[in-house]
Amino acid sequence: MAKWRNILAGSGGMLGLFVGNDRGIVKSSVVVKIHQMIVVKGFLHYNQYMKEKSAAANKRRPLVLKIKDGTTKPIYCDDHPEGRATFRCLKCGHLFCEACVGGEDGDKTYCINCKGFYEQDEKRRQAQEKKAVAAPSLKKAELTLAALGVGVSLALGYYVYENSKDPVINRGGLSVEETEMVQDANRLVSETDRLVREGIIESERLLATPVESLGDEYE
């Protein structure tokens, strides 16, 4: 009769019961490893969370003016003198508080008066991303079209050959059923070709269009 034993997992402090045989030892070691992975992963997530929280807190820290004698003087919002200034506008240098934030993009902060510039920069950034995606998509579409044509042709020939009672190689013509199959396949290839070429034309248009004009198009 197998004996039951208690094992204390060193790293995780996990107390487990298992049968005293090889299978039980293997199961216990697997449980310990899984527990270790959970502990390590949880620690990494917590560490990342604290870093992001600290960065956000530093970004929101009130601004101060450093005096030559080593002391500091608080800086107040230009529009709300009773509130401490937290940001300096990237566009105009305006000192403002949380209530006057017009837009944020990473470490870029705009006051409410420069909100229009923030929106323009955001549109320009989106247009640049779309343009960057369009370039590789164009080459990918061309390769896809070529591969699709070859693949459909091979698949069609094999399908007709396998499903025909009288294989094509043994006679000169096609039956009515085989002819309809070929016509359906040709229509499929034509439709796919049209869709892919439309995508290529759109990608070429995006690549040829200035980024400034794309900003108004993709709102």
UniProtKB/TrEMBL annotation:
InterPro entries, per the entry: Znf_B-box (IPR000315), Znf_RING_CS (IPR017907)
Organism listed in the record: Mariprofundus aestuarium
Keywords: Metal-binding, Zinc, Zinc-finger
Keyword Cell inner membrane: no
Record domain B box-type: where: 73-101
GO molecular function terms listed in the Swiss-Prot or TrEMBL record: zinc ion binding
Pfam family, one: zf-B_box
Protein's name according to its UniProt entry: B-box zinc finger
